[in-house]
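Provenance and format

Records in this collection were gathered into a single text stream. Each protein contributes a sequence line and a token line. The two records reproduced below are adjacent in the stream.
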Amino acid sequence: MSIGLACPACLSEPRLSGWRCRGMVILGCLLLIILPLMGFVIGGYLGGVEIGIWAALGGLGLAVLACVIPVIALVKAGRR
């Protein structure tokens, strides 16, 4: 069995490996779409288009951060 980049839950239960990891990937992809859109809509409603653009950039930054932190943890866990 090759370890590669797998989440800790997948390493402990190999029979469920694809099931849980796909959920993590789907959640990360949805965050990259949903957070900037929510930021743009809410910022645009509260402060106009310019504020909406800044809020969308902030949402994108949060989404990228939410995707990068688990990747770093998985790489560190894979090296053990």
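Adjacent record:
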Amino acid sequence: MGENKEVDYYHGVYGYIEDPTANKLLVVKKTKGAYKGKFDLPGGGQQAGETREDTLRREIREETGADLVEGNDYFISRATTEWTDDDQNPRTLVHTFEIARAVVGAADESITSSDTDGCCYMAKIAMNPRNASPLVLEALDHFDAVDPDIAEKDA
């Protein structure tokens, strides 16, 4: 007989925020949930009555301290992640996400939220399945973000 896994379904709106001069991506450090210990995109769940731009604006502000200047070029995807919660219970997260290419003002790396411990710009080439959430990896793939010339030099 198989294990009973709790399945969580979650939908969120996230920002893909580049520092184009350094080939870096603004990420948050997750402290809870399926992506605990990984880098993730700033964002989260919609509240009642919010548009996706409202959610994007609020979540980016809460997790990075930055003000949203522009959010566009959204794409929608889904990832399923198997994980173990803090009580050692096996769980499955089915995560549907909308990711927008976003432009923001200055971020405050010291800001923390209920499930993040600061933010930072990380080299896109350094993101991999061991240190980044599926959202980060899908966004990098979707926006064709890693400059192949830089990747070749670092290989």
